[in-house]
Amino acid sequence: YFHSDIFSLLNGLPGVVILSGSIIVVMKLLFYTKLERSELHKFSSLLLGIVCYLIGETLYFYQQYFLQINIPYPSVADIPYLLANLFFSYFLFLCLFSLINRKGLNPLPIILVSSLAIFPIYLILSSAYNFGINESSQLEFIVNSLYYTLDAFMLVPALVILLSLKKKDPFIFHWIFITVALILLAISDVGYTYFSIIIESLLQEFECF
Question: Three-class SS of residue 67?
Fold first, then answer.
């Protein structure tokens, strides 16, 4: 018998279910469609990313729902989360380079989107400052920096691909779905890590009073 509330159930279970369904869809794509070797390589990295993210979500859900504990940050779930972001970044860069080689690319989206990388750099510097004044541990600084770096590696190619899509592309809706999902994932990562730092610093200031 587990003393759990509905919030912890709804917070973790939908993600596990959606990711499990996504794995089935990608595996069906890999095994039941005739893809070129380069396409197999690309979507294999996407599959690995989803699997890693599912492991992270499952660990998070288990700690929150079954163990009923306050999940620390960083936690063991951050390892598969970071690996997932690494595979997603790799997938997006492979897609971007493939797009450049096959169709060429307007430099304007690259120029516009690259400027967004300034924000993750600012967050890394902010995290370094917090570490320097002993408001965060070395492990927190490393994990935060990895998240911000990988999120930038996801955001830039995903936005470039999204802005470069043509209406006549037969797979436009597939690419919109994939890129928007990964963009939202990167934004949620940045928001989670950034606000966790803010909340922690506010709690420390409150304790001082």
Answer: coil
